[in-house]
Amino acid sequence: MPTNPASPSGFVPLVFERRDLSSSLASARDFYDEMNRRRTTRHFSSDPVPRELIEHAIQTASTAPSGAHQQPWTFVAVSQPELKRRIRDAAEAEERENYSGRMPREWLDALAPLGTDEHKPHLTDAPWVIVLFRHSHGVKPDGSRQTLYYTQESCGIAAGFFIAAIHRMGLVTLTHTPNPMAFLGAVLERPANEKAMLVMPVGYPAEGASVPDLVRKPLDAVSIWK
Prior knowledge:
Blueprint: H1 21-36, H2 51-61, E1 73-78, H3 81-102, H4 105-111, H5 122-125, E2 128-135, E3 138-139, E4 145-146, H6 151-168, E5 172-173, H7 182-187, E6 194-203, H8 219-222
Antiparallel strand pairs: 1-2, 2-6, 3-4, 5-6
Helix pairs in contact: 2-6
């Protein structure tokens, strides 16, 4: 019998092991050091990446907390060259419009240090392109609409988990947000309630890959203590 009558699945004991302070600090420092080495690159090798690694990254992403535990996401993992080419062609068509007039000057100036433009070779160079779709609402078995809660926040957290998992397994990724992204739903044949949120090519970095020489904000610039 469920321990909580309001929950049909009930509750189970929390699996948790409290660590001593030195162990917690060592783990925290190691994880920070590892994630601080994470960089976004646009230069990918075409070397193959086993599907099993991508499966584990998506499974890790799906451990993220979500509103009412509704897990309002679908990760579409694309490896077929012709499908990646269709995604790239459509993305570059949109980006040409963006860089040639749709983007305001302030946005273009902000992007300039990153060296981005309408050319997106990473979408065909990388062995995998992962597209994260956010469920704007659910669909019940009878076809009626189901309200979902905090879908933007939930998918954002899941994306972060995915990126961390990719980095920890020795791969690289790029967060790409072609705008608008409606073409992805059509190309990947997703239902109308799924909205493309993020495109993430995944693979190994190309030989000689480079990244912008950036410095992350220090702790005191991103935190307030009271």
